[in-house]
Amino acid sequence: MVRGIKEVGSLWNLVVAAYLLDGPKRFNQILRMGESGGRDSLNSRTLSRALKHLTKTGFVERRVLSTQPVAVEYALTPQGQKLKPLLEAYSDLDPKARQRERGVQSLSLPVARTRV
Q1: What does the pLDDT look like over 53-65, one tens digit per residue?
Q2: CATH number of the domain that 68 lies in?
Q3: pTM
Q4: Which of 65, 91, 92, 116 is the S-S candidate for 71 at Cβ 3.0 to 4.6 Å?
Q5: What is the DSSP string of the chain?
Q6: How many domains does the chain have?
């Protein structure tokens, strides 16, 4: 298990892999997904490092598209797809996601009123 965790590497590697779960993306598409404007925003240097690491370790495939101008697309490999349950579990722990779920649940449940 420890080897598997070391193989994936940093937090940003997991974030980038999560962005690729729903299909191939170009560099700038991934970069825009990671821009929150805050301290924890994904920058181009971090994204470049993450993609290089994930490609080197076999989690991500880099495809050069024969377009004008030439474009590069990144996609999860079958090995990268194995990260899906882990990434979904992490997203379930996201406090913002839990707040949204609570908000939706509270709106859908009837409120019992008591008389005083």
Answers
A1: 999 999 999 999 9
A2: 1.10.10.10
A3: 0.74
A4: 65
A5: -HHHHHHH-SHHHHHHHHHTTTS-EEHHHHHHHT--SSTT---HHHHHHHHHHHHHTTSEEEEEE--SS-EEEEEE-HHHHTTHHHHHHHHHT-HHHHHHHHHHHHHHSPPPP---
A6: 1
